């Protein structure tokens, strides 16, 4: 904290660090007593030359208690009041809302930051995928960062792959070893001599086709106090129980979302209310902030409904159930192991799915002959630091 004497009076400045997505840079700055979260987000976007601020947010961690608590910085409230219990606050600039088709975005800066965010999702285990999909994404990252290299000397890139692309502790050992071997095989056969903008375009196309794209799963409880998985993306808010039956609520079907203590209340347009119990008050605040931003964004803009064609049926209790893509299956976790719940939450993600049995879209993936991107930025190829948390 620094006190500055000015003509208008005394101003108190608080130092902080913002971890950016652009090249993994750290932005050291200060905020004043009357600074809001929007002021800090504007500064982070200005440094990274971001014009569209709709997709982004700032995360911070509260480590003062027994367990680490994560929060999204409220843009309308004072920063000082939100981090009063946090010593030396660190903010993480991250994607809060994932657009439905990121490869269609023409802004080169936003495309590059979304590419970096999806790299973090793959590294942290949030981007669930099969071996072929993970290998394809990994090979595209290697091509994007290192360009052409001799696969016979691939051992020189294994350390980078283990540390910056896929972590062994985030996925099963068999999955990790199979992906590593497949990565260099795909690179050698398909990805040599690709330009930077072509690599980014293919990466965004493939990642956005995954069912786990833009998904951050949470373990919650329904009104019957049964463990269910909840996640949200551009399609809506989804709940999945132990029987793997999925309940999808489109954003256009939701009137408002409120919360109280550990309970989240989803008010539907048909005047029914879905009650969801979260693990803790802080977790409820985190989920509520994420859900409200999704609701505001996808109901106030024209967004292509990716769920067209899903057959739904209304049951007697007015809950809408549907067979939503049955392929996304990150639920091969032990629901009977109650101690597993908080451990998964502390890790910020559920580990790679173990139960997906489907044909990989890699074999059917169309390589664009003409990428829908703006002109490539010379010198765009470079190193990214992805060691900071998601």
From TrEMBL:
InterPro entries: Band_41_domain (IPR019749), FERM/acyl-CoA-bd_prot_sf (IPR014352), FERM_2 (IPR035963), FERM_central (IPR019748), FERM_domain (IPR000299), FERM_N (IPR018979), FERM_PH-like_C (IPR018980), PH-like_dom_sf (IPR011993). PANTHER family: 4.1 G PROTEIN, FI22325P1. PROSITE patterns: FERM_3. Its main location: other. One of its GO terms (cellular component) is cell periphery. Residues 362-390 are annotated as: Disordered. SUPFAM superfamilies: PH domain-like, Second domain of FERM, Ubiquitin-like. Keywords: Cell junction. The keyword Transcription regulation does not apply. The lineage of its organism: Eukaryota, Metazoa, Ecdysozoa, Arthropoda, Hexapoda. This is FERM domain-containing protein. It is found in: Cell junction. One of its GO terms (biological process) is neuron differentiation. Residues 14-302 form the FERM domain. The keyword Nucleotide-binding does not apply.
């Amino acid at each position: 904290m620094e006190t500055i004497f000015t003509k208008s009076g005394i101003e108190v400045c608080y130092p902080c660090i913002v971890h950016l997505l652009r090249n993994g840079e750290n932005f050291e700055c200060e905020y004043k007593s009357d600074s809001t979260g929007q002021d800090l987000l504007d500064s982070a976007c200005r440094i990274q030359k971001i014009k569209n601020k709709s997709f982004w947010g700032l995360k911070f961690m509260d480590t003062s208690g027994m367990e680490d608590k994560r929060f999204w910085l409220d843009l309308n409230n004072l920063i000082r009041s939100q981090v009063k219990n946090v010593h030396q606050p660190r903010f993480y600039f991250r994607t809060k809302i994932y657009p439905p088709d990121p490869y269609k975005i023409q802004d080169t800066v936003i495309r590059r930051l979304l590419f970096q965010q999806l790299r973090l999702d793959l590294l942290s285990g949030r981007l669930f995928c099969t071996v072929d999909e993970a290998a394809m994404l990994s090979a595209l990252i290697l091509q994007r960062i290192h360009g052409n290299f001799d696969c016979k000397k691939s051992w020189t890139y294994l350390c980078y792959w283990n540390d910056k692309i896929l972590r062994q502790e985030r996925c099963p050992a068999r999955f990790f070893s199979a992906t590593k071997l497949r990565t260099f095989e795909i690179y050698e056969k398909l990805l040599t001599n690709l330009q930077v903008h072509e690599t980014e375009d293919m990466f965004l196309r493939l990642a956005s086709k995954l069912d786990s794209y833009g998904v951050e799963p949470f373990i919650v409880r329904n009104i019957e106090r049964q463990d269910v998985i909840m996640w949200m993306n551009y399609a809506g808010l989804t709940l999945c129980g132990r029987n793997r039956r999925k309940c999808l609520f489109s954003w256009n079907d939701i009137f408002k979302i409120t919360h109280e203590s550990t309970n989240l209340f989803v008010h539907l347009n048909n005047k029914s209310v879905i009650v969801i119990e979260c693990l803790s008050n802080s977790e409820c605040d985190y989920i509520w902030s994420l859900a409200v931003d999704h609701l505001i964004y996808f109901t106030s803009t024209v967004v292509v409904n990716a769920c067209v064609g899903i057959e739904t049926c209304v049951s007697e209790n007015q809950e809408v159930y549907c067979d939503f893509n049955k392929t996304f299956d990150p639920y091969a976790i032990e629901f009977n192991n109650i101690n597993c719940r908080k451990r998964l939450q502390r890790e910020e993600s559920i580990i790679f799915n173990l139960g997906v049995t489907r044909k990989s879209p890699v074999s059917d993936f169309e390589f664009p002959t003409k990428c829908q991107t703006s002109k490539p930025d010379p010198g765009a190829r470079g190193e990214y630091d992805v060691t900071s948390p998601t």
